[in-house]
Amino acid sequence: MLKRLYFLLTIASLLIAACSSGPARTYAKGNHKGSVWNVDGDFNEGSNSLKIYINGYKAISGRLSFFGDTAIMNGEYQGEEASAHCRRRGGTYSDYVRCTVFVNGQKAATIQW
Fold first, then answer.
1. Signal peptide span per the entry (predicted)?
2. The pTM is what?
3. What CATH number did the domain enclosing 107 receive?
4. DSSP string, 39-68
5. Residue ranges of the alpha helices (H) in the chain?
6. For residue 75, which of 6, 33, 37, 81 sits 20 to 30 Å off, Cα-Cα?
């Protein structure tokens, strides 16, 4: 029983350690007179799951394939169409993952983990 608990704790700690956050970027729409938007994200290398946040709201989420190196994910923020074009460099346990985030077809930010 103790071995199982140790095993589960080890796996849980590895999954938590594999999760990383990208630095926040700011974005202001063209002719936008309001405040800028903060764009950031999280990538969990253990599960290949990705989340992109705009002003703290999860606007885009999805997974990268374990076998492919590119993905396009779609979502929305306050009625605006959002998408992320992501690319992995270096294989499944990659050197990095880079996503270019678009809002209504306009480049908003590039995030790298």
1. 1-24
2. 0.70
3. 2.40.128.180
4. EEEEEETTTTEEEEEETTEEEEEEE--SS-
5. 2-17
6. 33
Does some domain include residue 98?
yes
Contact 109, 102 (CB under 8 A): no
Dihedral over alpha carbons 30, 111, 59, 50 (to 10 degrees): 160
Q: Which range of residues forms the domain containing residue 42? A: 20-112
Q: How far apart are alpha carbons 70 and 7 in whole angstroms?
A: 33
Token couple for 28:
């202001």
The token pair at 51 is: 């989340």
8 token code pair: 């589960």
Give dist(CA 22, CA 40) in Å, integer: 6
Is 96 within a domain?
yes
pLDDT digit string, tens, across residues 2-47: 566 444 444 444 444 444 455 555 555 555 556 788 999 999 988 8
Residue 60 lies in a domain: yes
Q: Could you give the number of structural domains in the chain?
A: 1
Residue 10: inside a domain: no
